[in-house]
């Protein structure tokens, strides 16, 4: 039937025009939406591209993925399958696998044995400490262990402190091989009995006379000698390490550190942390200092050995005391918030020992992660995992694989423990001073990674719409760590939040 009424024809034309306008508007919205077109997904967002162009960066050096957790396709996929060095963002893989394999309530034990006879507070013999890789045996926790020994009646030790670190088997390594900084805390190698990360905080305070600098160590190592040759110079509190040169005159196993240089008179105080001694010597230095503070004595020195073994019938010797570490959930939080390398490496070795039997090795730890990826159907053929911490020039993973890992983590039973371990923008960890005065504060849970020629982030972002996104940015380029990488990250994150 054909309508001939002018009124009806007018209404139909108006309706068609309105529908056309609506379709046009809808098309415009779709074209502008970051969730729809493949062309948008496979191109850098304009804000990111502007930063790339401004600093004349090669866009092929960055791999990016942005994907809503409730979406099957990414909003942005740029060089997503290209293997990149992820720096410390690889810690997300190691910590997530550890939470699943060991469970959040896992804890490490440090065993104390008496190799001798204890009578009236006096041990005629040796005190044996057997570690199982506690990654958080800080000075405070070690002090609690010693207090427990005093409470159990031990006071005087006539023999040695024997350190059993056989639970881990770590190949000898040059601590300066990574970047030529062998005494930096981030280069510490794992050890099954590692006290306070083998790290000392040295504090520097000008003497009231103005003629020298007092050096204070924390923890106080009873077996470390300080050769202090620091002098005072007039000037403001500036300059690299405030003019202080740190050196170990012979080798790291020797017991002397040398401070030389001229300290600015404008500094009221200054401090830095460095690693000293071997793990066993460090443990002994802390032990002797704290033990004497608690009223105890030890007549012998330190040596590496084995704890008492099971007898011929298989009966295990009973320890005098067992110290428990914080739970894995607490340890993972410290690892990811502050990007602690040696703690992460302890996780890898611990997983190897628990799944494949002691001693824990890097190879066993890698095998555990490979098994876990296969069991969870996460294919990462490009993955090169060196030590699990990212402290390597050879580690590789793609942005697509990292994004898949983070999406899997969101569905994990231990998602709350994992996500809360990531630095929170503008509030804590390695993001404490980033985005603290912007709308992005509190909207990002991101693991950061940075080393020479690498800048990376991986985690979760909450957009203004209330949707949560996985965000991965792995950037490998010459000098990208000198601020350029962060500028690219900032542009990407602002784009995600705004959209």
What does this entry look like structurally?
- There is one protein chain.
- This protein has 499 residues and is of the alpha/beta class.
- The chain has 2 domains: 238 residues, DD-peptidase/beta-lactamase superfamily (Beta-lactamase, 3-Layer(aba) Sandwich); 216 residues, D-tyrosyl-trna(Tyr) Deacylase, Chain: A, CATH 3.50.80.20.
- Strands 3, 4, 5, 6, 13, 14 and 15 form a 7-stranded mixed β-sheet that branches. A 5-stranded antiparallel β-sheet has the order 2-1-18-17-16, sandwiched between helices.
- The longest helix is centred in the first third of the chain and has 27 residues.
CA gyration radius, whole angstroms: 29 Å
Query: And the CATH topology of the largest domain?
Result: Beta-lactamase
Query: What is the CATH architecture descriptor of the largest domain?
Result: 3-Layer(aba) Sandwich
Helical percentage: 25-40%
Question: How would you describe this structure in keywords?
Answer:
single chain, 499 residues, alpha/beta, Beta-lactamase, D-tyrosyl-trna(Tyr) Deacylase, Chain: A, 2 domains, 7-stranded mixed beta sheet, 18 strands, disordered N terminus
Write the layout of secondary structure elements.
Elements: H1 6-32, H2 38-41, H3 46-54, E1 62-68, E2 76-78, H4 91-102, E3 109-119, E4 122-130, H5 139-151, E5 156-157, E6 161-164, E7 199-206, E8 213-218, E9 225-233, E10 244-247, E11 256-264, E12 270-275, H6 279-293, E13 297-298, E14 302-304, E15 321-324, H7 328-338, H8 341-356, H9 362-375, H10 399-410, H11 415-420, E16 444-451, E17 454-462, E18 468-476, H12 484-498
Parallel strand pairs: 4-5, 4-6, 5-13, 6-14, 9-11
Antiparallel strand pairs: 1-2, 1-18, 3-4, 3-15, 7-8, 7-12, 10-11, 16-17, 17-18
Helix pairs in contact: 3-12, 4-7, 4-8, 5-6, 8-9
């Amino acid at each position: 039937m054909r309508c001939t009424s002018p009124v009806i024809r007018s209404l139909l034309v108006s309706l068609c025009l309105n529908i056309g306008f609506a379709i046009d508007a809808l098309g415009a919205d779709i074209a502008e939406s970051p969730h729809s077109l493949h062309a948008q997904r496979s191109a850098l967002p304009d804000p990111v591209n502007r930063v790339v162009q401004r600093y004349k960066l090669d866009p092929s050096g960055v791999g990016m993925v942005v994907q809503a957790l409730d979406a099957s396709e990414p909003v942005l996929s740029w060089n997503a399958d290209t293997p990149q060095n992820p720096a410390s963002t690889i810690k997300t893989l190691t910590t997530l696998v550890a939470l699943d394999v060991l469970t959040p309530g896992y804890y490490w034990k440090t065993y104390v044995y008496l190799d001798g006879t204890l009578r009236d507070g006096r041990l005629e013999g040796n005190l044996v400490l057997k570690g199982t890789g506690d990654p958080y045996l800080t000075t405070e926790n070690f002090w609690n262990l010693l207090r427990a020994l005093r409470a159990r009646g031990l006071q005087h030790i006539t023999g040695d402190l024997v350190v059993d670190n056989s639970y881990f088997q770590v190949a000898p390594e040059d601590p300066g091989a990574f970047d030529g900084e062998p005494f930096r805390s981030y280069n510490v190698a794992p050890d099954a009995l590692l006290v306070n990360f083998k790290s000392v905080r040295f504090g520097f305070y000008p003497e009231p006379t103005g003629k020298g600098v007092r050096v204070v160590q924390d923890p106080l190592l009873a077996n470390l000698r300080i050769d202090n040759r620091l002098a005072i110079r007039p000037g403001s509190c500036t300059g690299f390490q405030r003019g202080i040169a740190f050196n170990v005159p012979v080798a790291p196993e020797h017991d002397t550190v040398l401070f030389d240089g001229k300290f600015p008179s404008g500094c009221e105080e200054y401090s830095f942390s460095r690693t000293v001694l071997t793990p066993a010597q460090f443990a002994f230095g802390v032990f002797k200092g704290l033990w004497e503070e608690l009223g105890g004595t030890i007549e012998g020195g330190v040596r590496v050995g084995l704890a008492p073994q099971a007898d011929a019938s298989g009966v295990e010797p009973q320890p005098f005391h067992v110290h428990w570490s914080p739970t894995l959930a607490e340890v993972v939080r410290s690892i990811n918030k502050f990007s602690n390398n040696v703690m992460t490496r302890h996780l890898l070795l611990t997983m190897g020992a628990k799944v494949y039997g002691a001693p824990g090795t890097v190879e066993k730890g890698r095998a555990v992660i490979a098994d876990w990826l296969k069991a969870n159907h996460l294919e990462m053929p490009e993955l090169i995992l060196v030590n699990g911490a990212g402290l390597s020039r050879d580690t590789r993973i793609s942005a697509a694989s990292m994004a898949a890992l983070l999406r899997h983590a969101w569905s994990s039973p231990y998602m709350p423990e994992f996500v809360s371990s990531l630095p929170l923008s503008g509030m804590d960890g390695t993001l404490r001073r980033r985005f603290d005065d912007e709308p992005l504060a509190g909207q990002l849970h991101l693991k950061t990674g940075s080393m020479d020629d690498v800048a990376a982030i991986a985690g979760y972002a909450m957009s203004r719409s209330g949707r949560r996104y996985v965000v991965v940015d792995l950037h490998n380029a010459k000098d990208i760590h000198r601020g350029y990488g962060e500028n690219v990250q900032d542009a990407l994150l602002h784009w995600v939040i705004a959209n």
